Each structure stands twice: as C-alpha cells, then as structure tokens.
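Write out the bound-state structure for 2-OXO-4-methylpentanoic acid.
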Amino acid sequence: MESTLKSPISIERAKTSKIEQVDFDNLAFGSVFTDHMLVCDYKNGSWETPQIIPYGPLSLEPSAKIFHYGQSIFEGMKAYKDDQNDIFLFRPSDNHKRLNISASRMSIPEIPENIFMEGLNALLKLEEKWIPQTPGSAMYIRPFIFASGKGFHASPANEYKFMICLAPSGPYFAGKVKVLIEEKYSRSANGGVGYAKAGGNYAGQFYPTQLAVEKGYNQVIWTDDNTHENIEEAGAMNIFVRIGDTLITGPTSDRILDGITRKSVLEIAASKGIKAEVRTLTVTEVVAAAQDGSLKEMFGAGTAAVISPIAAFGFRDVDYDLPELENSYASMFKKHITDIQYNRAEDPYSWRVKI
Ligand code: PLP
Ligand code: COI
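---
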C-alpha cells in the first residue's frame, strides 16, 4: 500500500521484548500489552505524522484537560490471525468513522483516515508475533484520543494525542453472564453523549455496576433515563432478545452506542431469513415473556464481548433464568461472525480486511 502520509511513520524499537513472558494459552482481557504503541500529536491546528515507540508511561502536564474535564474518546477493535498467519481486521473503517463521530461530539479534532489506517497497519505489522492464535483469543486494539493540552479553563484543549495500544486478549467474560436491569441510575440521556465512546460514559457506569456486582451480577442492562421502561444496552455491549423466534433489539439513538457487532448481527439475521425487529423493547414485555416461557434467549453483542449469551437477568429482586438451547441464535451468530473474522468462511458482506 502506497503511503499517503506527509512523512513516513518513524519506528523506535523496544530494547527488549516482553513476549516470552506472556502465557498465550491463558490470556485475560486487555491486561498485557505489546512492546510498542503508536502516538500522534495534534499541535498548532493539525495532526502530525504518527510515531511508533516502545510501550510505556507518558509524560503529561498535571493541568492537561484530560485529567480535569475528561475530554477523551476511544475505540475497540480486534485483529485476527488465521492458520496461514494472515492478519485480518473486521469492518475497520466503521471504527474510524465512529471515532470521528465521538470526536465531534466531544470537541476533539477528527483524525484523518490515512493516519488511523496506516498507523494501525504499521503497528500491527510490527507486533505481528503477538497476535494470538489460541481459540477465543485475538489482538484487542485500543485506539484513543485525549486532551493533552494544558489549562484549567473549562474549554476544549488546543493539543491532543491519538494513540493505539495493543493487548493480546482472551474472552471478556470469564463465565456465564448474569445481568441486572437497572431502574435507578442512567447511563445516558437525550442530547447527551451516550452514542459517543467517551471515557466518562464508562466511568459513570462503574458505581452502579459495582452495586450490581455486589449482588452477583456481571453487568447492568441500562434502561431509558426518562421512564426506565425501555431496554437500551449493557455496559460494553448491545442487547438482543429472542421472543419466540423473533430477534429484537432497541433502536440506536442519542443514548446508545451504534455497535458494529449489533449491525452485523442484524445483517446476518436478514440474510438467514431470521425475523428481526428493531424497535422499543420494554422491560414489561421481557419479564412477561420470561414468565410465560416465550423468552428463549438474551445475548450481548460487542467487539470485546463478541456474542455473549446471558444466562439470567434480575429485575426488582427476582432472577429470571434463561433456558440453555441446543441450537441457539447466539451460537449461530457467534459462529458466523467469528468464522468471517478468523478467515474460516466466505465473507459475503466484505467485512473482512486483510492487512
Ligand atoms: N455498547 C457499548 C456501551 C460499548 O462500549 C460497546 C463496545 O464497543 C458496544 C455497545 C458494542 O459495540 P461494537 O460492536 O462496535 O464493539
Ligand atoms: C469493545 O467492545 O471494544 C469495548 O469498547 C468495550 C470496552 C468497554 C471493554
């Protein structure tokens, strides 16, 4: 690929590699990092050429606006290696577009596509050996942008850093997923930043999620901030339910992240002739379906979570268990999506991108 950057990406190699210390058969999610990272500065009104440097601590002004006003956004992607050692990304231009949607909402300068894509490709090629091939594992990619510019004035910074770090990762959830339908706290509101991958959206979830964890749940299912009657999404994934043989998920809005896995599930459902409805999904309807036995499945969809079947949900101090189905939609979608991601099957949608 011919570079379209103003100057080549410089690479400063790490003196030693940590790769020998990594147990690739027992990878947790996002807890070990490769030897290098990509850094790109925004200064004097434009993005400079990215650099690849050894992974390590950054030096920042204590008055950098990220620390005070939380001006930061991120993306989540994965790179997959097949048995021929070829490397693939899944719908990467959608992540680039969404990063810029988040950027514009948070008054952060948009990142040009060539910096994002060429920077990511160069980093992945350098760290190729780190991409896991153990089943269920992939290279989790974390592109992010934050305000590095200084000053206590509560206004957008004049300097930013775009960075990419890589973390060879196993599954996001260790076991069965149990969720709690939340009625008190809200993740987002109309006119807010829920649709952006803004760091503060996640920080705001930690406290209510911790309360749910103390009660034995893994994640909160957020409901709309106005009535708490409509199911929106979970902390790190979009939510689908299957009532009878119909798949249902809520519509995206100001309040919900437009998930790439979510839209892939909807496209696969359409191509397989599975009836899918994108519409308001009420808590009352889901509880009634759980009580009359028509609620067959509930699952989360996201890059980190892939397709995570939900074993039970809690609502108003009652737990509702979901049946374990032989041929679940969740397992079918998971197989279909991961077969495309790991280059084990044809990709009729042109989602897979070889790097
Ligand atoms: N919803 C939230 C809040 C998320 O953080 C994520 C993860 O990125 C998703 C949904 C799923 O989005 P995607 O499938 O694009 O990873
Ligand atoms: C992802 O699925 O990539 C996410 O961003 C979720 C993250 C909060 C772990």
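---
The chain has a mean pLDDT of 97.
Residues 76, 233, 236-238, 257, 259-262, 301-303 surround pyridoxal-5'-phosphate (ligand 1) (CB under 6 Å).
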